[in-house]
Amino acid sequence: MLKIIQIPVLTDNYIYLLHDTASGITAVVDPALSQPVFDELNRQGWQLDWILNTHHHADHVGGNLELKAKTGCQVIAANADKDRIPGFDKGVDDGDVIKIGQYAAKVLASPGHTSGHIVYYFADSAALFCGDTLFAMGCGRLFEGSAEQMWRSLQKIKALPGDTRIYCAHEYTQANGRFALTVEPENLELQQRIFEVGELRARNQPTVPSTLQQELDTNPFLREDSLALQRQINREGETPVSVFTEVRRLKDHF
Ligand code: ZN
Ligand code: FE
Q1: Which of 119, 194, 224, 236 could form a disulfide with 177 if both were Cys (CB 3.0 to 4.6 A apart)?
Q2: Which residues does the annotation mark as catalytic?
Q3: Cα separation, 224 vs 232, whole angstroms
């Protein structure tokens, strides 16, 4: 399997180092900063080949130029973002496949948080690097997209296998859980998960990655089909997009 190392940085960001042992190829996903990446590369004895960016926000690309300058790595990002990703080298579009050594990742366009947002899906490793599109029990804010766009993006993720590990870019889980409980207070899996998340955070442990199945069971942004949720927010029987839109609006004002 693809080796994945999670590096917590800033207040609540995660950077991910990916490594294929057979070929020695190494990539980093969304390097907010460069120094923590250099430190981990040194610790592992790895050389950086690729930067994979999900979107252009500073807390995802802040380390791009320094990493590129010192390692000669290349930056992969959405063609749509080529003018706003520092050090942009290789553009990708929805459906493209990139390879990290022997491991293939499919690129899925996921507009909503930003217009150019993409996620990277490593099917063989059951791993999704989803930046600020899907979070544990949450989803990204709509800075450049409509609720309907974000809903469509999340439908693509929903269709992946339930055992897919969700490597999102932020540790927002505990706060997300508090909101989730207000729209689905009687969801037992949600209650249980919030308890487990509390235990992990009390020990300063990450709650990421989760699995897609956990998100399907507890994440209100993937649960527009839940009648209990629809009732709780007074949207019973409305379209999935309309239910999602209301959940997003409520979270924005939570
Ligand atoms: Zn962002
Ligand atoms: Fe972010």
Answers
A1: 194
A2: 55, 57, 59-60, 113, 132, 170
A3: 11
CB under 5 Å of ion ligand 1: residues = 57, 132
CA of 90 to the centre of ligand 2 (A): 21
| End-to-end CA, the chain | 39
Burial class from Cβ neighbours inside 10 Å (0-12, 13-18, 19+) for residue 55 reads: buried
- Coil/strand/helix, residue 50: strand
* Residue at 199: amino acid letter: E
Q: What pTM was estimated for this model as a whole?
A: 0.98
Closest CA to 124 of 143, 145, 108, 101: 101
d(CA 249, CA 4): 34
Tell me how far the alpha carbon of residue 170 lies from the centroid of ligand 1, in angstroms: 9
Please tell me the predicted confidence (pLDDT) of residue 1.
86
Given this model, what pLDDT does residue 25 score?
A: 98
- Å from CA of 170 to ligand 2 middle: 7
- The low-confidence residues of the chain, meaning pLDDT below 70, are none
Q: Give the Cα separation of 134 and 130 in Å (integer).
A: 6
CB 168 within 8 A of CB 211: no
Question: What one-letter code names the amino acid at 72?
Answer: G
Residue with tokens 């055992």: 163
C-alpha distance from residue 206 to each of 70, 75, 194, 238 (Å): 29, 27, 13, 36
What are the extents of the domains in the chain? 3-252
Query: What 3-state class would DSSP assign to 254?
Result: coil
For ligand 2, a single-atom ion, the residues with CB < 5 A are 59, 132
CA distances from 9 to 172, 180, 194 (A): 13, 25, 23
